[in-house]
């Protein structure tokens, strides 16, 4: 332990003010977990997690008496949320695990800070800071953080057996905070316990995999996941690690879905099994679609047509994936880069007319309106998406006139 006043001073003033108010009500409360870790390495703080020895009912009573808005967000786990100036602050009563089944834990409240820290996954996540700025580090987390060492609190095999999600969390935190060789005890425990991943919900698996794929050092992390058998376990449809590594080496953006598309050719099956959201499934399908791909020899008009049909970032993603499909020469890589630059530099053309224009020009409501709009849109696309509203309305008039003449 040591005086670390600068840790609290590292928070923005509004959060410092909110914490000062909370400490008036709960003087024994501490900052815990990820925010302490990130304050130590001067990284941006996303969420502030707090812990206190008082039982949750007492925490709620005190905060309401103070006038704070309180929400019982996870009372069975000892967690409540205090809302100050519109910002939420999660406060959890100190706990110790009584029973675990690999997914859930039966907990009991405690006043023992070290016992609460002992149930956390890694030493770098088990530190806390009180209102005086004193850092409490029971398991050497500060030294591990400085050394880039991601180490389980206690016996790795036991901690994984308690909650198999810790396997994936190890890779995520090692990608962000680790350097040098990974902890061999952890790697051995993960390799031996990889089958425990089968007991996790696919939603929890995708939550962690998405964070891993969007994070730093992904190539090294995926190789480690492959060597421990984790990658094959969470992607039983098969994986294309070499292609994904080439995608990363080429400098593709940190888009989890793009990287997932590079990691497997069975994207539809993976999306279904991992229960991706509708938006995620749609983006993954668009990236993987066997559709016309921009080519270096394409004219500007042809590229404009493609960008009018699909977002430029999706087209650029497909170019990244095509580039990573096999090893490329420096000249080929440069050509792909120029093509992406051309695609992303095109202003997305907007089709300037709609069904209401057909109706305003005398068209009859019904399926015929959609048919004429489709014909005019195709004419507009064929012309490189340059025709303006006046020219498109002239085409509408032509189709309406043709139909009238046929009648």
Automatic annotation (TrEMBL):
Entries under InterPro entries matching the protein: Bact_CCA-adding_enz_type3_sf (IPR050264), NT_sf (IPR043519), PolA_pol_head_dom (IPR002646), PolyA_RNA-bd (IPR032828)
GO biological process: tRNA processing
EC number(s) stated in the UniProt entry for this protein: 2.7.7.19
SUPFAM superfamilies listed in its UniProt record: Nucleotidyltransferase (SSF81301), Poly A polymerase C-terminal region-like (SSF81891)
Residues of the tRNA nucleotidyltransferase/poly(A) polymerase RNA and SrmB- binding domain: 183-238
Keyword field contains Transferase: yes
CDD domains: NT_ClassII-CCAase (cd05398)
Keywords: Magnesium, Metal-binding, Nucleotide-binding, Nucleotidyltransferase, RNA-binding, Transferase, tRNA processing
Entry-linked Pfam families: PolyA_pol, PolyA_pol_RNAbd
Molecular function GO labels: metal ion binding; nucleotide binding; poly(A) RNA polymerase activity; tRNA binding
Primary enzyme class: transferase
Cofactor: Mg(2+)
All residue ranges annotated as the Poly A polymerase head domain in the record: 30-151
Matches recorded under PANTHER family: CCA TRNA NUCLEOTIDYLTRANSFERASE 1, MITOCHONDRIAL (PTHR46173)
Protein family: Belongs to the tRNA nucleotidyltransferase/poly(A) polymerase family.
Annotated protein name in UniProt: Poly(A) polymerase
Organism name: Acetobacter lovaniensis
